[in-house]
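[job 4471] stage=fold_predict status=RUNNING
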Amino acid sequence: MVFLKVNFGGFVPLSTVDWRGRAVCTAFLRGCPVRCHYCQNAAILDGKDEREVDEVLAMIEESALVISGVVFSGGEATMQKEALLALAKGVKKMGLGVGLQTNGVYPATIRALLEEGLVDKISLDLKTQWRHYNNLLKKDFADRVKESLLLCTEAHHAGRLPEFEAVVTTFRGCEDDIAYIAKDAESVDLVLQQGVIAGVAPLDFEELAAIADRLGRSVRIRTRQDGEVAYEGRRIVRAESIRDQERRSEQ
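[job 4471] inference complete, writing structure tokens
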């Protein structure tokens, strides 16, 4: 038994969109030190719902027959270092893969996960170019995120992190940031994710593809309408809608 508390934010027992190519469950950990105005999980940025780690592991075990991995998200899951490490160890004992969605502001947690071999995929949210970072987050976090990017990149190239992607949530009016972010993430998978915020029309697939064309590299484009598309110039390598993913996972 693990007598350790986790500030729990929610649980999805089956997801086909949180880890490409896998059916997973997703566990949300409450709390985050930043306040992005476009956050889709604002309800779990604050507050407390303390649960035993073993209670959360029991939820995961109930899904174990139909999943191959667990994604930890938030809030910001790395904010709860010891609880996250305990959860990842428990998931590994079940023979499942461990995925992490993170903003990178706690590199020490990421380092510990990598050093202990407890994570198989990391999706790192890169929010803007470095010179705008601290202004956007209202805190001095740019250097922390740079460290996380370096840790993940080095681990991925060394084979210690099987999957790593830099994710850029892209909004209309912020398109010029993408080239700067892509340069810093030039040696890893890059995802252009459609940003949705009230009062601003989201960039559609064609507009995101036009941004990708200017980068001169392959990317993955995620939109609500088209799911995830592997895109190389004007040649679509693979397009799979969310509905297609759900249908495939049921087979």
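[job 4471] summary: The longest helix spans residues 142-157.
[job 4471] exit 0
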